[in-house]
Amino acid sequence: MEPAVKETSQKEIKEVLNRHKEYFNKQCTKPIDFRIEQLKKLKQSIKNSEQDIFDALKKDLNKSEFESYLTEVGILYSEIDFTLKSVRKWAKPKKVKTALTHFGSKGYIIPEPFGTALIIAPWNYPVQLALSPLVGAIAAGNTAVIKPSELTPNVSKVIIHLVSTAFSSEYISVVEGGAETSQSLLKQEMDYIFFTGSVNVGKVVMEAASKRLIPVTLELGGKSPCIVHKDANIKLAAKRIVFGKFTNAGQTCIAPDYLFVHKEIKDELISSMKQVITEFYGHTPIAHDSYGKIVNSSHFKRLQGYLNNGRIIIGGDFDESSLKIAPTIMDDVDWKSPVMQEEIFGPIFPVLEYSDITDVIMSVNKRPKPLALYLFTQSGQVERSITGSISFGGGSINDTLMHIATPYLPFGGVGESGTGSYHGMSSFQTFSHYKSILKQTNAFDFTFKYPSAKHGLKIMRK
Ligand code: NAD
Fold first, then answer.
1. Pocket probe mutation, ligand 1, options 129, 187, 248, 253, max atoms within 8 Å of Cβ
2. ipTM of the complex in this document
3. CA–CA gap between residue 220 and residue 281 (Å, rounded)
């Protein structure tokens, strides 16, 4: 039996927030030693719950332990370790230069926490996407409320456990529920909102935040193109694309959504991808133990609806009882096909072909800015032409997904795929307000700025 997630009442939510505000105002979350200690506690608590996390991910999404470590827990450990190494440096006030007009004074910038941050998470990487923003929130000195997804109820219970054993409830809390709870949270006086989820709900979040002028980060989705040029290393490309597309059964915000392949290499690439699918998931992927399931039956039905949008050249089989859809590659689709109208978020891969790279640029640029873009080519000129002419959140050249897994690269979308970024230092910056201070000297006083100054204007115009 699934442990159903219940909505949390407005009254409870208000109480939670009041506790956080009171706690924050005690100033105890700000000392850097406190933050470091909490990050260590978070890491230890994840470690203590590791097996429970793996079990919950298996139940909610049929993730294998290997995949759960690679894409959820392992990423959290490296994010925490990276932050622990650098947070002292990031949190220090920074001196800046003094303008000539301000001679004698000093300028510096203090990063300060916003207060209480609300983190709303989706279901597809339900551990990582709830806790990775928390690393930034803690590092920057905030208190935080996490709202996990109601669609991964087993994971939600583990998150409650690992957070409540590591932290006091006035410091970090978990509020369970679905859209109703999420909307109640959005009506509160939060100091920051960090949302990961769909474009449509992102708009709801931004609208709610605008009523109170609460700053937001929106990590959204969209259709991320995967472009394979004629000079690509086809065998490697096939492996890396199959990995990126079918990990977590395609339910990855930055999964390649559709393939844009040069027509001269289309057949060879598709036949290589077919071999790789068999190598990874066997001849019957829906029966393979490590192949992910679709999160629930409504998403399963939505994806099933796409299967007749084109000609299936690989896969196409499914099993409703286990909510599995085989890795599927689909030809004969165009931009008007329903599968090309919205983010697929599942293991269906439509193929478009091109003969001129400028057509690719024009087609992608006509549509909302993607969260990710992948390009397989050995030509620096093609690389520069794509990265220079298409706006997208971030991406990889000759690989997929991997740009998300390094703390040195800020991760986020642009336009419809999101606003703001995080990971590594960028997480710290996201959850910090940078307060500018000018410290004036008392040793002397420039009188030209005062209304009584006779020659003030003349001096200033010089
Ligand atoms: P979703 O937008 O349906 O839900 C996300 C969160 O918002 C959940 O916690 C949910 O309870 C809450 N929510 C749902 N409806 C709401 C409403 N009307 N008002 C307020 N809150 C509401 O997204 P999802 O289905 O959980 O996740 C899939 C989407 O998330 C995809 O579009 C994917 O691309 C995107 N995503 C983006 C990233 C990223 O880092 N950019 C990562 C993962 C997923």
1. 253
2. 0.98
3. 29
